[in-house]
């Protein structure tokens, strides 16, 4: 990326960040009400929000003294408890996000088990009508499948049929050149569209294996799965594979992707990151992308003001200075003077860098 392109993206990120800050509801004051065990947030639009502390992940069971130590950020968009290492965003609390997905599911299960006269009466009425109607799967069922190319350490390629969440269902038994594997996948796609693929479960010494073959042929093996120890696991995988093949009949599901070699690191784009966060929170990916752009713009503004931006459990963004030094101009080998400069840097925390980094930090 050129310097002009980086500056243009940085400018757009700052504009999106400022627009988001103006549209988001922020808190101007926060207090802990010990009598009702609630947090009272006074919002920028004049409304008040009461949040039960018992439903906040990380605060349930904490002492009142520790809960009173809540701190509100300068922009009014986040709450911090440094002693408890707990952090919440004000927009998230306004939307009712009190923790991770597992924590929210646990809260939902508690509400579902709560008994009341109204719930009992409603259950009896539903039972008299025949009970809750069963949900029907779509015609293709399961997760959509797509064919993906993967390169091994020797530079050869193979094809895999994966679900939308990345689970490998089957892969081709042979490695070949990229063009040959592409042609092989095109033939598989054509057979899927013609509904001319069949799945067989074969019992081997390592367990049960699923084999993908063309309909009516006995010797042609197109792809195989990993071995399953239990027959029931292979049967369930067979259903998922059948659904993936059914969705692969649709032309838009037949996008052929490129998988980087195992020796190279995979790069996650901002759109991929926004999609994963949206899936985790159950939000619109476009909205999450705007939030990420706003966060990037806000971080850039703080770095421009020579502030450190710290994410607990992740790391710290900071500005580093490089002293003036002598250098050599490439091509001509002429000596030149390189002026001092400042550049942004990211220092990962011990938790995000891994156990080896934490051990090195302790030795120091």
Instruction: Estimate the helix proportion, in percent.
Output: 25-40%
Task: Give me the secondary-structure category.
Answer: alpha+beta
Distance between the termini: 37 Å
Order of helices and strands: HEEEHEEEHHHEEEHEEEHEHHEEEEEHH
Number of helices: 11
Specify the biggest β-sheet: 4 strands, mixed
> Spans of 5+ residues with little confidence (pLDDT < 50)?
136-143, 251-264
**Count of beta strands:** 18
Number of domains: 3
Shape, principal axes of CA atoms:
flat
Known CATH architecture of the largest domain: Roll
**Beta-strand proportion:** 25-35%
CA-atom Rg in angstroms: 28 Å
Named CATH topology of the largest domain = PH-domain like
The CATH class of the largest domain is identified as Mainly Beta
Structure description:
The chain is an alpha+beta fold and 364 residues long. The two termini are 37 Å apart. The chain is built from eleven helices and 18 strands. It has three domains: 3-106, NE0471 N-terminal domain-like (2-Layer Sandwich); 145-259, PH-domain like (Roll), CATH 2.30.29; 270-363, Irregular (HU Protein, Chain A). A hairpin with a 5-residue loop joins strand 7 and strand 8. It is flat, with a radius of gyration of 28 Å. Helix 8 (270-281) crosses helix 9 (285-304). The strands form six sheets. A four-stranded mixed β-sheet has the order 9-8-7-13. Strands 1-2-3 form a three-stranded antiparallel β-sheet.
What is this entry, summarized?
37% of the residues lie in helices and 26% in strands.
Secondary-structure blueprint:
Blueprint: H1 3-23, E1 27-33, E2 38-43, E3 48-52, H2 64-68, E4 71-72, E5 78-81, E6 86-89, H3 90-94, H4 101-113, H5 117-128, E7 145-151, E8 157-163, E9 168-171, H6 178-193, E10 197-204, E11 207-214, E12 223-224, H7 231-248, E13 257-259, H8 270-281, H9 285-304, E14 309-311, E15 315-322, E16 325-328, E17 335-338, E18 341-348, H10 350-353, H11 355-363
Parallel strand pairs: 7-13
Antiparallel strand pairs: 1-2, 2-3, 4-5, 5-6, 7-8, 8-9, 10-11, 11-12, 14-15, 15-18, 16-17
Helix pairs in contact: 1-9, 8-9
């Amino acid at each position: 990326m050129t310097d002009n392109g980086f500056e243009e993206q940085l400018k757009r990120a700052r504009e999106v960040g400022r627009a988001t800050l103006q549209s988001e509801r922020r808190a101007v004051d926060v207090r802990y009400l010990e009598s009702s065990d609630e947090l009272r947030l006074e919002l920028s639009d004049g409304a008040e929000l009461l949040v039960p502390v018992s439903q906040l992940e990380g605060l349930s069971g904490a002492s009142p003294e520790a809960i009173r130590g809540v701190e509100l950020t300068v922009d009014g968009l986040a709450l911090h408890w440094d002693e408890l290492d707990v952090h919440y965003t004000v927009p998230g609390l306004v939307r009712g996000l009190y923790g991770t997905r597992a924590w929210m599911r646990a809260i939902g299960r508690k509400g579902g088990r709560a008994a009341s006269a109204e719930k009992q009466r409603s259950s009896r009425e539903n039972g008299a009508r025949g009970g809750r109607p069963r949900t029907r799967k779509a015609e293709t069922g399961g997760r959509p499948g797509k064919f993906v190319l993967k390169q091994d350490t020797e530079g050869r390629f193979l094809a895999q049929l994966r679900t939308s969440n990345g689970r490998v269902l089957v892969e081709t038994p042979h490695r070949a050149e990229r063009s040959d594997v592409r042609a092989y996948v095109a033939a598989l796609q054509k057979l899927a569209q013609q509904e001319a693929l069949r799945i067989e479960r074969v019992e081997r010494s390592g367990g049960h294996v699923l084999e993908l073959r063309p309909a009516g042929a006995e010797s042609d093996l197109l792809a195989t799965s990993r071995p399953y120890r239990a027959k029931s696991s292979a049967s369930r995988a067979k259903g998922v594979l059948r659904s993936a093949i059914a969705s692969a009949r649709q032309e838009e599901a037949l996008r052929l992707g490129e998988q980087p070699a195992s020796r190279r690191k995979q790069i996650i784009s901002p759109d991929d990151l926004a999609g994963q966060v949206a899936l985790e929170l159950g939000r619109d990916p476009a909205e999450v992308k705007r939030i990420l752009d706003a966060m990037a713009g806000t971080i850039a503004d703080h770095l421009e003001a020579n502030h450190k931006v710290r994410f607990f459990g992740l790391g710290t963004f900071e500005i580093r200075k490089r002293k003036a030094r002598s250098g050599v101009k490439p091509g001509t080998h002429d000596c030149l003077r390189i002026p001092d400069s400042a550049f942004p840097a990211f220092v990962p925390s011990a938790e995000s860098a891994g156990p080896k980094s934490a051990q090195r930090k302790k030795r120091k």
